Amino acid sequence: MDVDMQLVGCDEAELRICDVLEVLQEEEVAEALVVSTPKPIVRIVEQPAPRALRFRYACEGRSAGSLPGVHSTPGARTVPEIEVLGLPDNIRAVALVSCVTRDAPYRPHPHAVVGGRGELGGVACHGGVCMAALNGSRLPLPHLGVQCVKRRDVEIALREREKLRIDPFQTGFDHRKNPSVIDLNSVRLCFQVFLEGEIKGKYTVPLDPVVSDPIYDKKATSELLICKMSDCSASVAGGREIILLCEKVAKDDIEVRFFEQDVEGNVCWEAAGDFTPAHVHRQVAICLRTPRYCRLDVSVPVSAFVQLRRPSDGACSVPLPFELTPLAPVRSSLPWLRRPSLVLSSSTASTSSVTETTSNGTSLCTLVPVVSSPTDIPSGLLTVH
């Protein structure tokens, strides 16, 4: 394999990406070096930001951009970074970075990892993967980007990856035959670290690979926004079916949040609407059932809010008002409990017994007031129920 991409930052012999790729060409990778026990472990110190980068095609003729870290702010930029715990001081290591699918089992993804040189160390890229040398036990990656491929080019990209044997979890490449099952709007970064073996410059001791949190194409999902709701109120008992129309959302990365605030603006109650990814229609409509309120004995409507929330990055839409109404009063099915009656003060009214037969033949004894005339009832003592 004729690849001559030198890595910047290596103290001694020239290090090329083929030094690792040659190892992957072997049917079995031999661990030529006995490392200390326990085996070093790869850990992601700073995750990549999930929605900060637009995936770009190679034909766009411009840089794919660089992934910031998840904790980046306008005033302080961070970058993805890994660390090898338990790495002996005298052992050199390199990291191979590739794209894998978002969902397990993590299969090779057709999108390519691309990078460039920077002050924090060099990155060599070839065939959709990048390699960088660790400076000590940590490796920041300030210039990594994701270059996407079109659906029709998925099989070609995966065949190239297969030739290089870039298959971190040994899942195979059968999925290239069915490109429609591959989500082209999301990837994970997979970090494979190799330690230098007995032969200087040959990295023959692989460590267990690790994957990042999902990274989503920024252009694939819009800003969260509720456009219209079928209903703006529901009972405190919950369970009412409503439909939200919204801007495009990812069906497995969206929640509908109901919440109430106190007079100071603090959230005093919140719950999620009940729905599954199958209830998200074409990414723009959500059919859900309202949640149960924390109290059912309210006597007046509760003013609450509803909004969309994206779990992957915590982004929320502008909340809209939503009213939680009290439970409807239960009316008795017994007719005699629903008839208006006179309630009189015991000091001014006397009663007599009247026997009444209902429609089902039951005899009832009712006490009714005896009043000589309406004028005999003092003002304020007559009440109709």
TrEMBL record:
Origin superkingdom: Eukaryota
GO biological process: canonical NF-kappaB signal transduction; cellular response to stress; innate immune response; non-canonical NF-kappaB signal transduction; peripheral nervous system neuron development; positive regulation of antimicrobial peptide production; regulation of hemocyte proliferation; response to cytokine
Pfam families: RHD_dimer, RHD_DNA_bind
GO MF entries: DNA-binding transcription activator activity, RNA polymerase II-specific; RNA polymerase II cis-regulatory region sequence-specific DNA binding
Listed GO CC annotations: cytoplasm; nucleoplasm
Domain RHD: 37-222
InterPro entries according to UniProt: Ig-like_fold, Ig_E-set, IPT_dom, NFkB/Dor, p53-like_TF_DNA-bd_sf, RHD_CS, RHD_dimer, RHD_DNA_bind_dom
Protein name (Swiss-Prot/TrEMBL): RHD domain-containing protein
Originating species: Gryllus longicercus
